[in-house]
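Holo model, zinc ion. Inputs:
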Amino acid sequence: MSSQEVDELLGHVGDATATADSEQFQVRVRRRTKSEAPTENMEDGARPLFSFGVIADIQYADIDDGYNFSCTRRRYYRHSLEQLRRATLAWRSESPRPRFVLQLGDVIDGFNKPRRASRSALDAVLRELEDAALVHHVWGNHEFYNFSREELAASALNSGREAATQDQGAALAEGGNWYHFSPEPRFRFLVLDAYDVSVIGRQERSERYSQALRLLQEHNDNEELNQPPARPGVEQRFVKFGGGFSQDQLQWLDRLLTLSDEKLEKVTVVSHLPVHPSSSDPVCLAWNYEEVLSVLHSHKCVVCFMAGHDHDGGYHRDLYGIHHLTFEGVIETPPDNDAFGSVYVYEDKMVLKGNGRVASRILQYP
Ligand SMILES: [Zn+2]
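Output:
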């Protein structure tokens, strides 16, 4: 496929620049109008089987703009709601309408907690998402800054429970917040809980908390554990705002992927934290990312891993052909720009139509 054909597949993309190599095609699009759906200009006339929306790190709070921990990135707390509104308007106007939306975590900011505004902020974002589509919510660190696990389980953010009642082949794993659903025969989505082993969101007396604290203190000498360790590279991931996956969850992941292999399904795995060092800043990686990768790589069915948390975003196609997509965060997206995507699913590929900071890409299956 030539780069011109990639452009045609995605529709007229204006100022797009395309690069291609033997393994992958990447099309970077700086700006795109919302009406340019890739379904409108397909050279082979094929319609996608279904589509879905993706958005990450909205981190809404009704407060003035601020900066990130290292004061290098501006955060548009109040305006993130407007960004979400633009995304839901775009999804509502698309044809076909997205069958669901993946909200990749950190839907409201931790600053809501001391202001006693967690509930009202959550209600505000849920109102915006209401008519867009069924939403699958991933839990990130900011969910735990605002709510306990029990509160989250009882809230609208417990989409695993919702999905299980929607007859989508969904199933909640016992004792955890990880689940799977199948929106279409031969396609499955696995939603993981990256804060399963963490010091945030776990009771101080729990085994998971002790396990997480031990791990953090082994790798991070700082008094303030939100400060990354001085060690270089991937060792920097051992921070308090990070987390990892329990052996229970990894075994569940392995079991589900074995079943999907047998059914010849295409599987997309979703988590708040990325798991590939080439798709993320090392500080944002899941603590036991290597264990997750080793499970993913032992199955043929995995086509894509989607994450948030690293607001700069990232992309890497690994040696097994799995696409690792880290979505740019809404919270650090200037008001005149956007950060969301729509994914069109075909028999042989997925096409990500990015908006604003999110690049468009063709994700050919391995
Ligand atoms: Zn996060």
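Residues 1-9, 11-43 have pLDDT under 50 and may be disordered. The chain has one domain: 31-358.
Archived with the compound record.
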